[in-house]
Design a protein that fits this description.
Layout lengths: L4 H5 L11 E7 L5 H12 L4 E7 L4 E6 L6 H11 L3 E3 L4 H43 L8 H13 L3 H12 L5 H21 L10 H33 L4 E5 L9 H9 L2 E5 L8 E4 L8 E6 L2 E4 L1 H4 L5 E3 L4 E2 L4 E2 L4 E7 L5 H12 L5 H35 L9 H4 L3 H15 L2 H21 L2 E3 L2 H8 L3 E5 H5 L5 E7 L6 H12 L5 H12 L8 E6 L3 E6 L2 E6 L1 H6 L6 H4 L7 E7 L2 E9 L6 H10 L3 E5 L4 H11 L6 E2 L4 H13 L4 E5 L5 H6 L2 E5 L4 H6 L2 E3 L5 H35 L4 H4 L5 H20 L7
Parallel strand pairs: 15-22, 15-24, 22-23, 24-25, 25-26
Antiparallel strand pairs: 1-3, 1-4, 2-3, 5-6, 5-7, 7-13, 8-11, 8-13, 9-10, 9-12, 14-26, 16-21, 17-18, 18-19, 19-20, 20-21
Helix pairs in contact: 2-12, 4-8, 5-7, 5-8, 6-7, 7-8, 7-14, 8-15, 8-29, 11-15, 12-14, 12-15, 12-27, 14-27, 14-29, 15-27, 15-29, 16-27, 18-19, 27-29
Subcellular location: Cell membrane; Endomembrane system
Keywords: ATP-binding, Cell membrane, Membrane, Metal-binding, Nucleotide-binding, Translocase, Transmembrane, Transmembrane helix
Main location: membrane
């Protein structure tokens, strides 16, 4: 499998027609989808900002703005003042990796502390419940003043930051999950304090409820954070691929491989420097077992290199002088001396990381509904809690008086206000905007990281949704389904004045001015026959038709049958039958007289047939699209076992996009797989564009999915990964909406009159914590499907 580092590292991460400036901010303090909406709203209000993408799972905001119109530090300051502690992403990839790890370690330390506190709070408050259930008095712990003190300490210390953040968010008109939890805990604590200070009211104290509520909330946040870090581990592993140091050779003028230079190079001293400080042109020595620190060209030595971190291909690749290597790949068997071509953020692996990170902020369209709901969700919940309180206090307990002696007996004794208050608190704490906010980003985080590990770069959540809707996959032929290494199989002279070799020489003279695989095949055939090359001038190329040049004062034209006809040359049946079916025919004219024909055959890639079969098994219609002759296309289709209806041949490059559009007009959702410049319009037209990593920069820039390797089976894997990731998004969103749709009415007491079922605030808090954790855990299950 060949890898083209230059292609990947030069690709653009955006395809806007106007230049834009991209600012990346690390944003802290986001708790739920409501926070995401608040951050996006703040940033979008700033002059010069074009687009904002905020990722809750990775806590990153990507801002696109007009160049020179926005002060990046000002954006970070605005968010910090709003309550979201933010900073610009500075430094090298290594520093970013270090920051990521330090944040992880700090979170782990905080999590350990939270787990201990949660355990103590839940245990001590649980004893109060056991006492109420008739377990008998327990010294000290059974005293109501002990529970008052426990609740007070819980709110003042572990719950303080949560409550303060909730109040500040409400004051900023951007309430979040902490706002709901804070209102619930303060309400429960206040009601219990009133019952303690004014016993004549006959209210029951329930100090253990806010304590357990905080315990479950903090425990849920701990589990959720741990699950989120597990989801980010695969992405962190991409950072780990980047080498930190390089052995730079001090000697210069060794770019050529000669016996003298080789001896000097291997014996020259080296200095160890940070990989990011290596300059283009520096010579780097890499020993067996070391990671290659830069993108570069091997000038001395030979070895096998493990490129699985880029391509997903487990077999090592042999590297010899003049072959390219990529940073982060592992040198295995021999020492290499490499001339640096790209360093730092320009290397292939850095560009891949940047692309993956950008993809993780692009939302699936289905997420916009969740975000829109989440933006008003907390207001809705607070309104529902208020209605619950008013309804049960003024109407509910009078319509169904039995609730005071059934489901509510342990909760409120004979106090309608207390029962109503507990139900309202349960409504506040059971609501889970976190699940809505984490549904998409965690799935994309896991899916995109899995893809990057396997050499499949999916450029965002919006791509996942379009892939899920596909029903047709269109393949370009040359270089995509075939090896792009065609060989001349036949050369026939049609004029007594020209030998077969002369025909080849003339064709090669013209084709040396082009870069088409057919031109390469003709030039290779001349070299194979040890024929001298002929000089030409005045090259003219007509895409899809042919090429012409002047040789020894005569105009030589080489091209297809259509181009020949346009030149006014008529083809007879005898000429058409010279080349066997299934081969590409190239015609050669001298002074507009047909003098020879050349037959060229391109072989299918070894995994082409299996790829087509797997796609068909997935229910997708596979189409072959080529500019080649029908006979050639039909021969390829026959090998692939495609029906004649699935073949579109003799399609010129500018008409390939029209062919894609015709399928779309019939209601099909189309993916286009290609690798060449002439495929770019069709790739742009398709619903999903898939480009091979060995293809041209234009094709890769246009593509929605980039397959770094050349394996066609990666097309199947990329579609399968996209579909499975999108399925996880839909499952997460379904669970998040279903949970809130069912949980909120239950907490409001819908089941209390008929069934005596009521959720205490502590139980509601446990359910809320479970909701967030379940969404993230479900995203993590995606990794199991791709082991």
């Amino acid at each position: 499998m060949q890898l083209n580092p230059q292609t990947i590292s030069e690709q653009q991460l955006t395809s806007t027609t106007l230049p834009t400036q991209t600012i990346i901010l690390d944003v802290g303090g986001m708790k739920c989808a409501g926070c995401v909406m608040a951050v996006e709203r703040q940033l979008n209000q700033q002059p010069g900002v074009i687009a904002v993408r905020v990722n809750l799972a990775t806590e990153v905001a990507t801002v696109e703005c007009e160049p020179g119109t926005v002060d990046p530090q000002k954006l970070a300051d605005i968010l910090t003042e709003t309550g979201f502690n933010s900073q610009l992403r500075y430094g090298s990839a290594a520093n970013q990796k270090l920051t990521f790890k330090e944040r992880h370690r700090q979170e782990m330390r905080d999590q350990i502390g939270r787990v201990v506190i949660c355990g103590v709070l839940i245990f001590l408050s649980g004893i109060g419940h056991f006492h109420q259930m008739g377990w008998g008095p327990i010294p000290v712990v059974s005293n109501i003043w002990f529970h008052w003190g426990l609740a007070t300490l819980a709110l003042m210390f572990p719950g303080r930051s949560l409550i303060v953040d909730g109040v500040r968010s409400l004051a900023r008109n951007a309430p979040n999950m902490n706002t709901l939890v804070g209102l619930g805990t303060i309400s429960a604590y206040t009601a219990s304090l009133v019952a303690l200070l004014f016993p004549r009211l006959g209210w029951q104290c329930f100090f253990d409820e806010p304590v357990m509520l905080l315990g479950f909330i903090l425990l849920g946040k701990t589990l959720e954070q741990q699950a989120r870090f597990r989801a980010a581990q695969a992405f962190e592993s991409l950072w780990a691929l980047q080498p930190t140091t390089a052995q730079v050779i001090l000697s210069t003028q060794l770019q050529e491989t000669t016996q003298e230079n080789s001896a000097i190079a291997w014996s020259s001293p080296t200095v160890e420097v940070p990989a990011e400080q290596v300059l283009v042109g520096d010579l780097v020595k890499v020993f067996p077992g070391d990671k290659i620190p830069v993108d570069g060209r091997v000038i001395m030595g030979s070895s096998t290199v493990d490129e699985s971190m880029l391509t997903g291909e487990s077999f090592p690749v042999t590297k010899q002088p003049d072959l390219m290597v990529c940073a982060g790949t592992l040198n295995q068997s021999g020492a290499l001396i490499i001339a640096t071509t790209r360093t730092g953020e320009e290397t292939t692996v850095s560009q891949i990381i940047s692309l993956v990170e950008t993809a993780q902020t692009r939302k699936a369209p289905i997420q916009f509904l969740a975000d829109k709901v989440a933006g008003y969700f907390t207001y809705l919940v607070m309104g529902l809690a208020a209605l619950t309180l008013i309804f049960w206090y003024t109407i509910g307990t009078y319509i169904w008086p039995e609730v005071m002696t059934s489901g509510g007996v342990n909760l409120a004794v004979d106090a309608p206000l207390l029962l109503s208050l507990k139900l309202a608190i349960a409504v506040l704490v059971i609501a889970c905007p976190c699940a809505l906010g984490l549904a998409t980003p965690t799935a994309i985080l896991v899916g995109s990281a899995i893809g990057a590990e396997r050499g499949l770069l999916i450029k965002g959540g919006d791509i996942l949704e379009r892939v899920h809707q596909l029903d047709t996959v269109v393949f370009d032929k040359t270089g995509t389904l075939t090896t792009a290494s065609p060989q001349v199989t036949t050369c026939v002279s049609l004029s007594h004045g020209f030998s077969d070799d002369r025909i080849l020489q003339l064709a090669a003279a013209v084709e040396q001015g082009t870069h088409h695989p057919i031109a390469t095949a003709i030039c290779r055939a001349v070299e194979g026959r040890n024929l001298p090359t002929i000089d030409a001038e005045g090259f003219v190329t007509q895409t899809g038709l042919g090429a012409a040049a002047m040789v020894d004062g005569e105009r030589i034209w080489v091209g297809s049958a259509e181009g020949l006809i346009r030149c006014g040359v008529t083809l007879g049946e005898s000429v058409l039958s010279i080349i066997p079916p299934g081969q590409t025919v190239v015609y050669v004219t001298v002074a507009e007289e047909l003098v020879g024909v050349i037959g060229i055959c391109d072989r299918l890639k070894s995994d082409a047939k299996m790829t087509v079969e797997r796609l068909q098994q997935m229910g997708l219609n596979v189409v072959l699209l080529t500019g080649d002759r029908f006979s050639v296309a039909e021969a390829i289709a026959s090998e692939l076992e495609l029906s004649p209806e699935s073949v579109r041949a003799e399609v010129r490059p500018e008409d390939k996009a029209k062919a894609i559009a015709s399928y779309q007009q019939q209601g099909h959702r189309v993916a286009m797989v290609g690798d060449g410049i002439n495929d770019a319009p069709a790739l742009a037209q398709a619903d999903v564009a898939i480009a091979l990593g060995s293809g041209t920069d234009v094709a890769i820039e246009t593509a929605d999915i980039v397959l770094i390797g050349d394996a066609l089976m990666d097309v199947v894997e990329s579609i399968r990964l996209s579909q499975q990731t999108f399925n996880k998004i839909r499952q997460n969103l379904f669970w998040a909406f279903a949970y809130n749709t069912i949980g909120l009415p239950m907490a409001a007491g819908v089941l209390l009159p008929g069934f005596g079922i009521v959720l205490s605030p502590a139980v509601a808090a446990a359910f809320m914590a479970f909701s967030s954790v379940s969404v993230v855990t479900n995203s993590l299950l995606l990794r199991r499907q791709f082991h």
